[in-house]
TrEMBL record:
EC number(s) from the headed UniProt entry: 7.1.1.-
Keywords on record: Cell membrane, Membrane, NAD, Oxidoreductase, Quinone, Transmembrane, Transmembrane helix
Protein name: NADH-quinone oxidoreductase subunit J
Topology of the protein relative to the lipid bilayer: Multi-pass membrane protein
Membrane-spanning intervals of the chain: 6-23, 30-51, 57-75, 87-108, 160-179
Source organism: Luteolibacter soli
Keyword Oxidoreductase: yes
Role according to the record: NDH-1 shuttles electrons from NADH, via FMN and iron-sulfur (Fe-S) centers, to quinones in the respiratory chain. Couples the redox reaction to proton translocation (for every two electrons transferred, four hydrogen ions are translocated across the cytoplasmic membrane), and thus conserves the redox energy in a proton gradient.
Length: 185
C-alpha cells in the first residue's frame, strides 16, 4: 500500500473515531462510526486482507450500523443539553492519550524497517492436499484463496459454534421485533 493511502485511511478512521465521541447528536455519531469503519476497511485492504476489508464494509458499516440507526430512531433519543466540561476527566483523558502516544512513538522508533518475506504457498499447499484438494491446487498455482481458507476453517472446524451463533442471532432478532411492538390495549 502506498504511504499516502495508508495515511489517508488512518486519518479517516481516527477522525471518525473522534467524531463518534465528540458529536452530541446520536445519529451523527453513528454515521461517524461508519466513516471510521470505512477507514479501517481501507487499511485491511491495504494489508491484502481483502476478505476482512469487504466483510468490514458489509457487516459493520452496512448491517450493524443500520441496526444502530434503527435502534436510535426507535428510542427517539434527543440531543443532550450542553453542560460545562469538568476539568478532572478532561485532564485524565488527555493524559491517557499523551501516555499512549509516547509509548507508540517509543515502540515505533525501535522497530526495524524490514521487508516482509513472501509467503511460501507451495509449502502451504502440502498441508491441504488431503483435506481440501481445491485449496491445495490454488496454493500450488501461487494464488492465495483467502475466502476459501476462511470458509474451510469455519465450516470444517467450527460448524457447531457457527450454527449456535446463527440460532442466537435469530432469537435476538425475534426478541427485538417482539419488544419493539407497541401494545395497543
Amino acid at each position: 500500500m502506498p504511504l499516502y493511502l495508508f495515511w489517508f485511511f488512518a486519518i479517516v478512521m481516527l477522525l471518525g473515531g473522534v467524531a463518534v465521541v465528540a458529536l452530541r447528536n446520536p445519529v451523527a455519531s453513528a454515521l461517524s462510526m461508519v466513516a471510521s469503519f470505512v477507514g479501517l476497511a481501507g487499511l485491511f485492504i491495504g494489508l491484502n486482507a481483502f476478505f476482512v476489508g469487504i466483510i468490514q464494509i458489509l457487516v459493520y458499516a452496512g448491517a450493524i450500523m443500520v441496526l444502530f440507526i434503527f435502534i436510535i430512531m426507535l428510542l427517539d433519543l434527543k440531543t443532550e443539553e450542553k453542560r460545562a466540561p469538568k476539568l478532572a476527566p478532561l485532564l485524565g483523558g488527555l493524559g491517557i492519550v499523551l501516555a499512549f502516544t509516547i509509548q507508540l512513538i517509543g515502540i515505533l522508533s525501535k522497530s526495524p524497517n524490514v521487508e516482509d518475506k513472501p509467503l511460501d504457498l507451495t509449502a502451504a499447499s502440502a498441508h491441504f492436499v488431503e483435506s481440501s484438494p481445491g485449496i491445495s491446487a490454488k496454493l500450488g498455482a501461487g494464488h492465495l484463496p483467502d475466502v476459501n481458507l476462511i470458509g474451510d476453517v469455519l465450516f470444517n472446524g467450527y460448524n457447531l459454534p457457527l450454527q449456535i451463533v446463527g440460532v442466537l442471532l435469530l432469537v435476538a432478532t425475534v426478541g427485538v421485533v417482539v419488544l419493539s411492538k407497541r401494545q395497543t390495549t
